[in-house]
Amino acid sequence: MRGLHADTGYLLYRLGLRSGQLFNASLQESGLRLRHYAVLRFLATTPGALQRELSSSLGYDPSAIVGLVDDLEKLGFAERRPSPDDRRSRIIVLTEGGRAFLRDTDEAGQRVTNELLQPLDPAEREQLHALLQRVTESGLEGRV
After folding, report:
1. The whole model's pTM is what?
2. 143 — phi, psi (to 5°)?
3. 70: which of 2, 63, 123, 143 lies 20 to 30 Å off by Cα?
């Protein structure tokens, strides 16, 4: 029988847990969590997104998105605006305050990544990133 650490899925799970712990600790002072940060990072790559798009792209339950966006809106990091394509819908957009927050947290995020991947040399880090990106793009996005 295989040992627990022979299971790649388990190792990814453990790495994800540790990453979340470290990232949440780095965000603690701001009062935000990794889930908020993920929403902000996603919004930084788009001119705006419907809540259902955020839910699908990030793999979060739609009801969780509502609360996350409410939190970000209270902080002035995101705002709901009328959709240019459908007056009945609202899109979520990143504000200048949200952009500033992301700029301010870039260094902390890099420190977390460096701590997690410390055993790997730069080429191995790039390879790991490329492999994880390939696995994610092949169908993991939007699944919980």
Report:
1. 0.84
2. -105, 140
3. 143
